[in-house]
């Protein structure tokens, strides 16, 4: 996969979707677990899906039209993992806060313990001597992507063989993945560590790696007898956000952010903004700086969204990177409401949190509002609802 494989535009996402659709049926189910050069057997749609340059409904609509529910079942499940993780975290936002607590602690240790710092740097640079882990660290940094199986193996090696804090690994991913996502990333790392499904850590084994890389790697010395990382039990699910409704009679401004770059549904709900602000939350994703590749993807994706809707946006202001700036900008336009697609748990939600100022109205998309309430337990319980969720979307 070349370094410029993912252009941050909706057109590029739709092109990728069209190219992938023929393979999204049984071929995907049979070959999706193989981590092979070029990654032709998986969709690589995650950078566009994560930022909603292309939506879950659009992807599933195209795939189901070609293959039907039976043949596309595996792919459909995978797309719903994203919705499941978002709903799970939305009902337990303290898990995101706890991850940040772990990260700050681990970061302090990295700065005060030279041995830990050297091991962490070697793992991020791909210099551990474990050939597959080194390959994946470099692939991640060079392309902003890793295959799902490689993410699982890498996280397991990071935690159990290299004995590095899991939160530092999750942070390494968030700095470099073009699809870096608070819910999918945090909860997947927790799952590998044995925190998400308590007491059931994921062990990367040499034989599994050899099989699903078709013999490219057969690492020696992996710790395959693993014990779960200890941590607090999962919190009980709390209430989901109500989000609010747009009042078309009020003078409104629109706030665009990286979690939803397809704002058409807000216009359809009656929004006619006098001005539009663009949130920049890139600096809040990691304790360090996001990679240049990630920064460029997010900036490009936001610019693409603005360009697609230019006539409807009014005056556009970029780079709103804190709540005070958002409020000052909205007040400057005499706004009575700030409308924004509901930002799920993560940097944008954190940036907007606070009291006072112009009211923020953040409706929840129907897709999320229907799916999230079912993320109370494990994915397999959630999965039972997928046929109804598909029907509710008209598939
Ligand atoms: C440790 C770890 C960290 C991860 N971090 C992220 C992350 O930051 N952002 C992210 O989007 N995904 C993350 N994932 C999930 C998954 O690996 C990626 O979504 C997937 O590899 C993206 O590649 P693809 O588009 O080719 O997937 P495909 O196999 O083609 O799947 C199609 C779509 O389904 C969704 N999907 C597939 N598998 C998963 C999954 N396990 N969890 C959630 N959604 C899924 C994605 O939207 C994906 O684009 C992580 C997984 C692990 C094990």
From TrEMBL:
Residues 75-205 form the Cryptochrome/DNA photolyase FAD-binding domain. The keyword Flavoprotein applies. Signal peptide: none annotated. It comes from the Bacteria. Its cofactor is FAD. InterPro entries: Crypto/Photolyase_FAD-like_sf (IPR036134), Cryptochr/Photolyase_FAD-bd (IPR005101), Cryptochrome/DNA_photolyase_1 (IPR002081). SUPFAM superfamilies: Cryptochrome/photolyase FAD-binding domain (SSF48173). Keywords: FAD, Flavoprotein. This is FAD-binding domain-containing protein.
């Amino acid at each position: 996969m070349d370094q410029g494989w993912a252009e941050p535009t909706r057109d590029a996402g739709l092109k990728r979707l069209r190219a992938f659709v023929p393979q999204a049926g049984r071929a995907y189910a049979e070959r999706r677990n193989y981590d092979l050069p070029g990654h032709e057997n998986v969709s690589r749609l995650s950078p566009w899906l994560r930022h909603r340059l292309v939506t879950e409904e659009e992807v599933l609509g195209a795939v189901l039209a070609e293959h039907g529910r039976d043949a596309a079942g595996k792919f459909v499940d995978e797309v719903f993992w994203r919705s499941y993780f978002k709903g799970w975290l939305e009902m337990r936002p303290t898990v995101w806060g706890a991850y940040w607590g772990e990260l700050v602690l681990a970061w302090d240790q990295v700065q005060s313990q030279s041995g830990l710092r050297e091991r962490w740097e070697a793992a991020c640079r791909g210099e551990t001597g474990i050939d597959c882990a080194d390959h994946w660290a470099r692939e991640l940094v060079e392309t902003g992507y890793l295959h799902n199986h490689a993410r699982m193996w890498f996280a397991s090696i990071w935690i159990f063989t290299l004995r590095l804090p899991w939160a530092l690994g999750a942070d390494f991913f968030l700095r470099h993945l073009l699809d870096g996502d608070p819910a999918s990333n945090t909860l997947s790392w927790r799952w590998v560590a044995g925190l998400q499904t308590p007491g059931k850590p994921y062990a990367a084994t040499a034989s599994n790696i050899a099989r699903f890389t078709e013999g490219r790697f057969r690492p020696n010395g992996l710790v395959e007898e693993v014990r779960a990382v200890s941590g607090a039990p999962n919190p009980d699910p709390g209430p989901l956000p109500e989000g609010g409704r747009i009042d078309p009679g009020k003078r409104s401004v629109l706030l665009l952010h990286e979690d939803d770059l397809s704002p058409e549904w807000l216009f359809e709900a009656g929004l006619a903004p006098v001005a539009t602000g663009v949130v920049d939350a890139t600096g809040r994703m990691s304790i360090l700086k996001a990679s240049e590749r990630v920064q460029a993807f997010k900036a490009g994706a936001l610019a693409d969204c603005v360009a697609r809707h230019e006539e409807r946006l009014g005056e556009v202001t970029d780079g709103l990177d804190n709540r005070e700036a958002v409020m000052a900008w909205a007040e400057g336009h005499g706004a009575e409401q700030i409308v924004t697609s509901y930002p799920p748990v993560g940097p944008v939600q954190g940036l907007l949190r606070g009291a006072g100022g112009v009211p923020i109205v953040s409706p929840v998309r129907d897709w999320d509002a229907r799916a999230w309430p079912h993320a109370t337990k494990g994915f397999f319980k959630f999965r039972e609802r997928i046929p109804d969720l598909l029907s509710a979307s008209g598939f």
